[in-house]
Structures are given as C-alpha cells and as structure tokens.
Amino acid sequence: MVTQNWFYDGMLYVYALSLLFYFSDFVDRNRQAKQLGTGLLIFVWVLQTGFIIHRIISHLDMTFLSLFEYLLLFSWLLITVSLVMSRFFRMELIVFFVNVIGFAVITINLFGIGSGASLERWELAHEMLVLHVILMILAYTAFTLSAIFSGMYMFLFRRLKGKQWTKQMQRMPSLDVADRFMFRVALVGTPLLMLSLAVAVASILVESRYSLLIDPKVLTSFVALAIYIWNVLRHRWFDGAGWKFARLNLISYGVLLLNVFMNQASNFHSWS
C-alpha cells in the first residue's frame, strides 16, 4: 500500500482508474468507458462525502477544520462539479481536466498533509514518488507496446506503398490491426503519464522544492505528454491517417527514451 491507511489508498486507486476510463471516453467517445468512469467517480464521491460528514459530526465546528479537511472538501467540490457537468453538459474535456486537478489535490491530501500523520514531510514526498514511479512504469510499458505497433505499421505501410511484398509480412498484423492497437495502447498510456506527472508535481509542492518544476527531466516529461495528447486527439478527431500517428508516436517515444537517459543530469529522483 502507498500510505498506512487502506481507506485513502483505495480512494486514490479508484480515482485514478476512473480517470483512465474518462480519458478513453473523451478521446474515443466510448459510452461504456464513460459509464464505468462515472460509476467509479461516484464511488469516490460517496467515500469523500461520508468522511466529510463524519468529520463535521465529530467536530461540530467548521471554524476548526484542518488543512487536510479543507483540501478534502475542495477535491469533493471538484468531483461534485465534474459529475454535474458530465450529467447535464457535453464538456468531456473540462470534466477530465477538472478531475486531474482533483486527483492532484487528493494525492497531496492522502499523504497526510494536515491530517496528523506521523510521517515526516520528506517521507511523505518519498512515498508519493513511489506512486509516481509505479504510474510512470505502467505508462512506459503501454508506450513501448504502442511504439512496437507503430514501427510495424510504418514498415508495412512503406512496403505496401512500394509494392514490396515478402513472406515475412504474412506473419505481421495487418495495417488495420496495427493502427487499432497502436492507438488504443497509447490511449491507455497517456492518462497514466498524466497522473504520474500530477503526483510528481504534488510531491514537489509537498517538499516546497519549486525549482524542480523546471528540472530538465520534468520539463521533458511534460513535452512528451503534450505530444502524446496532441497525437491521440489529432488521430481521432482531425487527421486519421495511420502513418502520421505512427510517425509522431515514435517521435514521442524517442522523447521518453531521452527522458530516461537524463537521470544523470536531473535532480528529481535523487532529492528525496
């Protein structure tokens, strides 16, 4: 578990899972994904509502709310607003990014800020970095698979365009299959990378080491995220050409690989 409280751990994981489904619906207009994401988000809302009511009843004085409770109330309001917007308006993009902010807030909160946790601040930041690394590894795994399918797509596309058919190509997936898988796996990796960076920024804020926000590794990660978001949105909404998606997908993966080799020039993973 990430923290010492299973209740908060479960809330954090369910919240992250709901955002994965919301991002899938936002890009791919997947009704089933939206229903799952909404259901999980409602579950998080119920957990937060129950906890807030419990705190109000136990305190009976709203003037003595701790920072922990203020942040929890803030994240609860963000979730409430996003659920209302999702129900009555078609604002999937706004709903998703509102909840990314809510996830960052609840991440800071769930690691004991203002809650009386016994862990020191540097220990809290370290635990948050552990979650960041786990999410980043999952994102790298997804992007690696997407890059493999992208490479296959580019190889097949050029061979077929040049009418250079070989027997080895019979053992490879079709262009349609490669296109579908490289897109859908990238669709999983993109929100994972986004959540990982949200946790990383939260850990920086917890430790008040704001200079790390301009660390080369952090900046490169955000550049890679921006490219992936643009590529996924463009492929689905603007230009569905598979070879363009595959090419930019490989460029995005190259930026991520560059990010891996920047560990020696970065202070981000060593400061905690």
TrEMBL record:
GO molecular function, one term: heme binding
GO cellular component: plasma membrane
Top-level taxon of origin: Bacteria
UniProt key word Phosphoprotein: no
Keyword Transmembrane helix: yes
Entry coiled-coil feature ranges: none
Annotated ranges, domain Cytochrome c assembly protein: 66-260
GO biological process: cytochrome complex assembly
InterPro entries: Cyt_c_assembly, YpjD/HemX
Record-annotated membrane-spanning stretches: 6-24, 36-57, 63-86, 93-113, 133-160, 181-206, 212-233, 245-262
Key words of the record: Membrane, Transmembrane, Transmembrane helix
PANTHER family in the cross-refs: INNER MEMBRANE PROTEIN YPJD (PTHR38034:SF1)
Protein name: HemX protein
Organism: Paenibacillus taihuensis
